[in-house]
Design goal:
247 residues, alpha/beta, 7-stranded parallel sheet, 9 helices, 7 strands, globular
């Protein structure tokens, strides 16, 4: 579904991001995954190539808090492959810290990675995508962008900002041939969930009509569909992949 496409995936070394990278490679894309450290990115690439030595994947680790570093890294991708077709903004961090314990520094740290970095990455690829007259930008939102959460105000705030960024840039970039969408995961079986006590998780599962948590592959399938030609007439959407019925 992605043959001939070049994709950059931030936060691509584990969890949902790693599943997206794997799904894109299975569908014949060339993938550049971004990690927080070069060592982490290299480890993810080695893991992918251990089973599939011919997969066209490489790892980079630009500082996502530094626009200049991102632009230089993404320009390098453009020079190596001649085009950038897909950007997945998946890097992010969460927190459940109560408001009374929140600090301005923690709030700013979460917003910087979840919102600022996504904007920097989009800005860094927009020139190349505009020049080629096509492109697909996918942002990772969250179910809490709509529902909020009991504590940890910065995370839902950042994901609501991602939704606004997605909708606005879809309108601005659509005439240039660039689609912008977001995927909003629900409770997903990642390292974070596995570290959560079962007694906290089971009541949440009972509230999900499908009676299970999502798997990373469930999310990767949504990112694949939206990046492929099958989703070529979809832009400005926040697709909730959370096993729940909308009311």
């Amino acid at each position: 579904m992605l043959k001939g496409k070049v994709a950059i995936v931030t936060g691509g070394t584990r969890g949902i991001g790693y599943a997206i990278v794997e799904k894109y490679l299975e569908n014949h894309a060339t993938v550049v995954l971004c990690g927080s450290r070069q060592e982490t990115a290299d480890k993810a690439v080695a893991k992918l190539k251990a089973e599939h030595p011919d997969w066209p994947v490489e790892g980079i680790a630009p500082d996502l808090g530094n626009y200049g570093a991102i632009k230089a890294a993404f320009d390098g991708v453009q020079e190596r492959y001649g085009h950038i077709d897909i950007l997945v903004n998946n890097a992010g961090m969460s927190s459940s810290t109560p408001l009374a314990d929140f600090t301005p520094e923690l709030f700013r740290k979460i917003m910087a990675l979840n919102v600022d970095a996504a904007f920097y990455c989009i800005l860094a690829v927009s020139e190349a995508m505009t020049a080629q007259g096509s492109g697909c930008i996918l942002n990772t939102s969250s179910m809490v962008s709509r529902d909020g959460q009991p504590s940890g105000v910065a995370y839902p705030t950042s994901k609501a900002a991602i939704n606004g960024m997605t909708l606005s840039l879809a309108r601005e970039l659509g005439p240039k041939g660039i689609r912008v969408n977001a995927v909003a995961p629900g409770i997903t079986n990642t390292d974070m969930l596995q570290a959560t006590p079962k007694e906290l998780v089971e009541p949440l599962i009972r509230q999900i009509p499908l009676r299970r948590v999502g798997e990373p592959e469930d999310l990767a399938n949504a990112f694949l569909f939206l990046a492929s030609d099958a989703g070529s007439y979809i832009t400005g959407e926040v697709l909730h992949v959370d096993g729940r019925a909308r009311t």
